[in-house]
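Q: I'm writing up a methods section and want to include an example of the input and output format. Could you take the sequence below and give the corresponding predicted structure tokens, formatted cleanly so I can copy it straight into the document?
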Amino acid sequence: MEDGRYAAEVSSEQRPSTDATPPAGPRPARLSAAAALCAAEGAVLAGFGAYLLLMGLVGDPASPQQAETGGLTLLALAALPLVAARGLLLRRRWSRGPAVITQLMAVPVAWTLVGTGGAMTAAGAALAAVAVTVLVLLVNPTATEALGIGPRNEV
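A: Here is the clean output for your methods example:
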């Protein structure tokens, strides 16, 4: 059969849902909070990345190449939570995956920061608190329903 003809024969109930149309209803506060925390993580990563890159270019670090590489790496890593935050705000079902992955990557980083002592202990504790909070918000049934994620209806 031709593609157009086949598409006309498939009922709207059998068509797979597209990500272009978010589920109906208002966005839950839990989803907005998770998006805000992901955006904050991305902004902090981008800020540190820009700082390292700038110091590598115009500052006097011990290793300019290492500072520039670290800065570029942090800028690239900042994209993941920022894109996930935008997707969560727009209620795109794909956005939960990158948001969860970001939080799972943040937990060992937080553990390492807590273990270094000093001021980094507070930074590690804050990062751990944010990561666990976002994970709890994203696995909440209200958030999963708002993203259109749920048990599959088998025919």
